Amino acid sequence: MSDMQHRPLLEVRDLEKVYHLNSGLLQRIARQPALNLRAVNKVSFSIQPGETLGLIGESGCGKSTLARTVLRLHEPTSGSITFEGSDITKLPHREMTALRRSMQIIFQDPYASLNPRKSVEEIVGLPLSLHGIAKRGEIRDRVVAMLESVGLKSAHMGRFPHQFSGGQRQRIGIARALILNPSFVVCDEPVSALDVSIQAQIITLLESLKRELGLTYLFISHDIGVIGHVSDRIAVMYLGDIVEMGPSREVLKAPKHPYTKALLSAVPQIDAGARRERVKLTGDLPSPIAPPPGCKFHTRCPFAIERCRHEVPALRDLGGDMKAACHLVSAS
Ligand code: ADP
Ligand code: MG
Q1: Does residue 80 sit within a domain?
Q2: Which residues does a 6 A CB cutoff place in the pocket of ligand 1?
Q3: Residues 128-154: pLDDT tens digits?
Q4: CATH classification at residue 308
Q5: Ligand 1 atom 25: the closest Cα is on which residue?
Q6: Number of structural domains the chain divides into
Q7: DSSP secondary structure string, 158-199?
Q8: Is residue 287 one of the residues assigned to a domain?
Q9: Ligand 2 ion: Cβ-proximal residues, 5 Å cutoff
Q10: What is the pTM of this model?
């Protein structure tokens, strides 16, 4: 039977995150105008247990904000987040802390996110002692086992982050995220800071850990090659909106939204042989403080018509589990 009949592990409804800039005391004294930056704009999606949802979009389009708001590392402005069947949107701080064991994040820059003064044993063991779920001797055993499962030698436990290569540091970041046995892991550009030769090793590791541990991923990258490789479904984000979402194979083979087409056209390996129209992405991402009216993509879209300049396109069902927010796309 179809996956749609299972309860999603994570369900996000109309999630919104607005940053209020110029809201500090000094800015108010200087009478600077209040600015609202809508980084995530009423986004809805769900993730089934065991699935990898890939999230793609240019830098600055709101991917990290979406991920952090889902984990409530940032407080949502509005909308709801349901995890394992319960609404966690307004869960009090203490309960949220307990729940965080199940929801973890792997960051882009393993060096910046690892305390340089702590040994690997301390870094990877810290979540266990913070959550008070293992005794001292037990912590060491679990750290040893975890390091081995991410391909690090337990003999190196006493070393510090700077004594490792970039790829090894990301393995430490992965070990720290997985030591609490989470069910849901956000991978926020986990290979973007690594050499291309190392990227494949880390992706392979994340995929095998997912299988072994039964994990569910929200996998973020600005690299459509990476996203295409790891994802079961793909969501495409532009200036705070999901503009296209669907099964990975469909999105790669027959993208509907001009923005997705542009992202794919930029990658020759993916584009090769596909009989898709090529779309060249011109200009920069507009400021999210003053996004273009109508379809936010119209300023860069080669197909834009008058309607696109003033009417916001809804994310519409196109059949076959595909959705796109474009006036020019019709259901198949
Ligand atoms: P991405 O991860 O896709 O590169 P981000 O979520 O980091 O995008 O950023 C989306 C937008 O939100 C950007 O314009 C960024 O400058 C802004 N932003 C991110 N974090 C904050 C913050 N803490 N305060 C104010 N603006 C922020
Ligand atoms: Mg980011």
Answers
A1: yes
A2: 19, 37, 39, 57, 59-65, 288
A3: 998 888 787 899 999 999 999 999 999
A4: 3.40.50.300
A5: 19
A6: 1
A7: T--GGGS-HHHHHHHHHHHHHTT--SEEEEESTTTTS-HHHH
A8: yes
A9: 64
A10: 0.93
